[in-house]
Amino acid sequence: MGHPERGGFRAPLRNLPLTLRGEAGPPRPSCLALTGFLLLHAGCGGTLYLAANRTSPRPPAEVFDCAKGQIAVLGYTQTSLDVEGHRITARKYDWETRMADTQFRRMVERLSVEVRSSAGGSAHLRVDAHTFAELATQRGPTEMEQEASPAVRAAAQALLEACGS
């Protein structure tokens, strides 16, 4: 507290209106509008990657083998393989793209392929295409997702065309 003559006097909390004391009261219209605005924008966010699906009449094992072979044909390097789960991930470095950032190193294009069984013995093929900007930061290489590049979108579409029919 302090002396009132020195300007250090503070009013006790019980003299403040209820909403300023932190006690329950009806929400103010401005707070409701702000909350609605934030929730609306949180729900309307788009994705940066491409997710493409196709159903094939061929068995899942055959579609999986086709996707495994197409990864190399498209110029990607396989980074992981799950034979039981029928999943493959692959990457390709893009050294040609430039970015106005001193920490920028290269673009990394990633494909994630998953083959699942569908009804009647057919296969469901899902390909996710991502593009990342790799930065050389103080804590080491850091990837920041970007919008999927036209090259990785074309590779995903080519993989679907080759193995999804």
What's the SSE blueprint?
Elements: H1 29-43, E1 50-56, H2 60-73, E2 77-82, E3 87-94, E4 104-117, E5 123-137, E6 140-146, H3 150-163
Antiparallel strand pairs: 1-5, 2-3, 3-4, 4-5, 5-6
Overview of the structural elements:
The chain is α+β, with helices and mostly antiparallel strands. It is built from 3 helices and 6 strands; from the N terminus they run H-E-H-E-E-E-E-E-H. Strands 1, 2, 3, 4, 5 and 6 form a 6-stranded antiparallel β-sheet that branches. The longest helix is centred in the N-terminal third of the chain and has 15 residues, at 29-43. The chain is elongated and about 55 Å long. Residues 38-43 have low confidence and may be disordered.
H and E order: HEHEEEEEH
Tally the helices: what do you get? Answer: 3
Fraction in beta strands:
25-35%
Overall form: elongated
Major sheet size, sense and barrel closure = 6 strands, antiparallel
What percentage of residues falls in helices of 4 or more residues? 25-40%
Give me the secondary-structure category: alpha+beta
Radius of gyration: 27 Å
End-to-end distance, in Å?
79 Å
Number of strands: 6
Mean pLDDT, rounded to whole units?
82
Could you name the ranges where pLDDT drops below 50 across 5 or more consecutive residues?
A: 38-43
Which characteristics define this entry?
alpha+beta, six-stranded antiparallel beta sheet, 3 helices, 26% helix
What is the gist of this entry?
The protein has 165 residues and is an alpha+beta fold. The protein is built from three helices and six strands; from the N terminus they run αβαβββββα. The chain has helices at 29-43, 60-73, 150-163, and strands at 50-56, 77-82, 87-94, 104-117, 123-137, 140-146.
